[in-house]
């Protein structure tokens, strides 16, 4: 029984590691620097280490090869720990960890989520690093694919989501 539990734990760790490797995750500052050289939209995955749905998105959504390849080609992808302790400089302001209650939160995550600390939350920033939208909650690969195309192709400028969603053709494998 111990061996079975150990095998399960190793498999889970390996699967989670693969999900992380599929998408080329950057720090917030790295994405901003790369964006100066070659502008692209920025996808920000705001998570916490205790969030079950965050882990589920890593395993079921970001681990999908089609999703990972699409993100790597069309976005700078950022993993932002909503309770991270590292200072982050953005728009000439230093955002810090804010201790509150038993845990706390990172000020940048709270600012980007407009104070609504809900994990996971997926944010889309334009090439000009302006907030396009924030999507709280778990996104499965089918929904994520639609959202990625909608923002990377700037369809939000010309189409309502409802119309886009009705006409969308998936490329998922």
TrEMBL record:
Secretion signal, residue range per the UniProt entry: 1-19
SUPFAM superfamilies: Thioredoxin-like
Domain Thioredoxin stretches: 1-173
InterPro entries attached to this UniProt entry: AGR/TXD, Ssp411-like_TRX, Thioredoxin-like_sf, Thioredoxin_CS, Thioredoxin_domain
A Pfam short name: Thioredox_DsbH
Keywords, comma-separated and alphabetical: Redox-active center, Signal
The organism's place on the tree of life at top rank: Bacteria
Listed PANTHER family: ANTERIOR GRADIENT PROTEIN-RELATED, THIOREDOXIN DOMAIN-CONTAINING PROTEIN
Designated name of the protein: DUF255 domain-containing protein
Source species of the chain: Polaribacter sejongensis
